[in-house]
Amino acid sequence: MTRNSPPPRRGTKTLGGDSSESVQGRKSWWRGAAVAGGLFVVLLVLAVVVNLGRGSGSTTDPSGTSSLGPTPGAAPGKNPGGAGGNLQTSALKTVDGVPVGYPRSQAGAVEAAVNYQIARSSAKYFTDATTRHKIIAAMATSEARDRLTDNDDTGMKQVLSSLGISDVNADSLVARAAAMGTKTVSYTDQVATVEVWMAGLIGTTSEKAPLPVSASWTTYTLTLQWQKGDWKLSSVTSVNGPTPVSTGSEPSSVNDFRTADEEFDAPPYIG
Predict the structure, then answer these.
(1) What are the strands, taking DSSP E only, across the chain?
(2) Across the chain, how many H-helices and E-strands are there?
(3) What is the C-alpha separation between 140 and 194, in angstroms, rounded?
(4) CB 97 within 8 A of CB 81
(5) CB distance 109 to 102 below 8 Å
(6) Nearest CA to 44 among 241, 179, 213?
(7) End-to-end C-alpha distance for the chain, whole angstroms
(8) Mean pLDDT, contiguous 10-residue spans, the chain (271 residues)
């Protein structure tokens, strides 16, 4: 007699939570993410069809303050601040490559949730601590900033170690994401909770990489607070899926991924 297989488990991953349970969840997330061959780090993004034509975009000057217009000499679609999104697709102001200055509305909270996760999706966010700290400082509440920083510093070290990434080969890391949709769970003019369903890519373009470039599907729940005249990130949790059936297509070569990562623009910000 054939026994029915148990349904797949939906693991929860937590960033920035206050409780001991949340801390335990965060550790288990990164511990699992650090296992080569099972590493599917999920990176958040945006609905690509929303508001991509609203202005020429905004960029960040060397001092980290906001300015409008493309950065002279910057590669098209690349973020000179190291964050994960394409500054040329958003009319919002930016701080260290992160769009800021959202309206105090439900739509503004959704834009902030998506864009903050896009900012966290870049390879440089994984490999460069200075860049990562600036990005977190730009988007987090004052209460959550240290928790998010400590958690991501620990997590990124484990992920990079599992991938065999060091300062020498940091440029071989590919990290990108795209959002499939958003859902507002709750909203007031003080606190908003938004879900974002995403597909992500992470891996290296080395022929001997422990994990080639691989895909993942995850739904993130972001809690934002209205603080200092803007929506700011206070916590993030996630569950696996929904995950589609594979088409069975032949995977692309590492050279194909290396070329695509160099030639394709970063995922677009919205707003």
Answers:
(1) 12-15, 58-60, 66-68, 93-95, 98-100, 173-187, 191-204, 214-227, 230-240
(2) 6, 9
(3) 15
(4) yes
(5) yes
(6) 179
(7) 57
(8) 45 39 38 37 30 31 40 46 74 90 96 91 91 96 96 90 86 85 97 92 80 84 96 92 86 85 84 77
